[in-house]
Specification:
The protein is an alpha/beta fold and 160 residues long. It is built from 6 helices and 5 strands; from the N terminus they run βαβαααβαβαβ.
Length: 160
């Protein structure tokens, strides 16, 4: 019998918000897991579904209001144009370091074997259909199904 030595064997990443910074954090972590030979699966729920919605995935924004890492007063972050400017600046910086856009990153993830799951409850709540989603999404599943996917020794769940 194989002895468990504490190694991470599978990462189960739950994405609940599709702000540009959260989506890229989740994608980088999933991609990094695969590069290390670790299985990776992603569960997109609530607003995280926008990261895999065909019409929305290329229009994600930086969260400027209520984001302490922006180092700006909340009032300033809420002014018209500030979110668009911050998003534009972030996308330019990501382009400069050759970071793939969201659609290309999804292609990289699926090609590397990352499983992509959409949350059935959130899909029903937002009236989305599977056809609305990026073609690489494996399926629409329940939370219980996702937990079953994550069963086993050496599995870690991460909520973003």
């Amino acid at each position: 019998m194989n002895e468990y030595n504490g190694e991470i064997r599978k990462m189960m990443i739950i994405l609940s918000k599709a702000t540009l910074e959260n989506v890229y954090a989740a994608f980088v972590l999933a991609n990094g897991a695969r590069m290390e030979g670790i299985e990776a699966e992603m569960f997109f729920t609530f607003f995280g579904l926008e990261a895999i919605h065909k019409e929305k995935l290329e229009h994600l924004h930086i969260a400027t209001v209520g984001n302490p890492a922006m180092h700006m007063p909340t009032l300033l972050g809420g002014l018209p144009g500030v979110e668009a400017l911050a998003t534009h600046m972030m996308k330019k910086e990501m382009e400069r370091i050759d970071m793939p856009d969201v659609h290309e990153f999804l292609e990289i993830l699926t090609a590397s074997g990352v499983k992509l799951w959409a949350c059935k409850l959130a899909m029903d709540m937002f009236h989305y259909k599977k056809e609305d989603l990026y073609e690489g999404v494996d399926d629409v599943i329940t939370v219980g199904d996702f937990y079953k996917q994550g069963s086993g020794v050496g599995t870690h769940m991460l909520f973003i």
